Sequence to fold (471 residues):
Amino acid sequence: MFTQGRIRVVALGMADAACIASVWMLSVLSYWWLGGDYDPALYLSFWPVVPAFLLLNAVLGLYNGSWMYPAAPLSPVEEMRRLFLSSLIVHLAVVAFLVMLFQTTRGYSRVVIASAGVLTSLLSQSFRNWMRYALFKLNAGQIPVLLAGVGEAGRRLAVILKTDPYTGFKIVGYFNGVREVNPELDSKEIPCLGSFKDIVPEAKRLDVKILIACQDERLFRCQMKEFSAWFTYIEFLPTASAFPVFGSKAVVFDGLGGLEMVNQARKRALRFQKWLLDKTLALIAFVVALPFFIVLPVLIKLTSRGTVFYRQERLGRYGKPFRVWKFRSMYADADARLKRLCEENPELAAEWERNYKLSNDPRVTPFGRFLRRTSLDELPQLINVLCGEMALIGPRPIVAGEVKYYGTSYETFASVRPGVTGLWQISGRSDTDYDRRVALDTYYVLNWSPWMDLWILLRTVLAVVLMRGAR
Fold:
């Protein structure tokens, strides 16, 4: 049963080996080509860094938990954090080895070692994601699992596992409360295998050792003993609602087991760290982007009439209104055009009411489309960050009419400053539906951490460069 999982582990190991080997080769040759006075062949003696990196990754649980019995992977944020840690330890060990052996690092370039460490930290997750995508397309290394329950959580999970190459789980069948198919799920790929009482017999027949239980808690408890007699791993997801999981851990009080959930946003030290990081990065980005603040206004003026900047009222922390800065990407009479278009086209009006966006917005100027595709229209929001109205990374800044979509989650959502970028932007941006946007925003607020911000920042750069999901 774990064959596909072990194929996945080997593939991820190959990706890690390819990453660190490529980075070392690139660092050594680049420094040599730039005039470094050493023999590149000298660095062949450092081949043990490759198996050391793989071994440390295995110890840190980076191969879907266990290389012998692989299951669910770490979250992308936690994976990035542990890959950073693994790379740091390996490359510090190289320096320590040289110092102990030769009492100095002379003869070996510290620039090469440092650059290899930094690049391995930054690129290792990308190498892994490329490998995951290849496995997904080849239908290899996909770990078979069974799904119990097809409520909201079960349906959302089925969509995620079917389209996301990251997890590596493949649902081979689902079980409903009664023996009836669910038209939203049932297909040749995910057939209905019966009711809850059929779970263990069917699991034995298919030799599947992982169960994802999206059942009601009471039903789950009733069958827990039966499940534990067969399944190696049981993933329990009783609800589709977001709650704090990042940094959470199992706790035991004299035989009573539970889960300690950590609210990172309540820690003052971390809040100050986020404030300092936001301000520092925003100031650096503003200085780097100064040429754009000179060139883009000229181009905007030359291509359409109207002001250079566009300011729209949005809701900030605790629902306090503020005006967000953007380079103007629409015609000057955009609001009047929208009103007229909605009156003439009911489908367009429905799309606007549903998403507060239009997939093919006729109000956008030709140069404005370029600004949006490249996200350059959002550069002035750095002013909002420096003024304390926004964070560099956070949930989306919404308009008053969108509050209704957040329901009971709005208070949680509004407890932090909105961000220039966030989970929604790296998860499809304009391509994400509204329910998913709300879920992503709520998840971010409840599970925020400095590592999550760093992960989002790196993914944002990639999303902007590839112009993924932007309109």
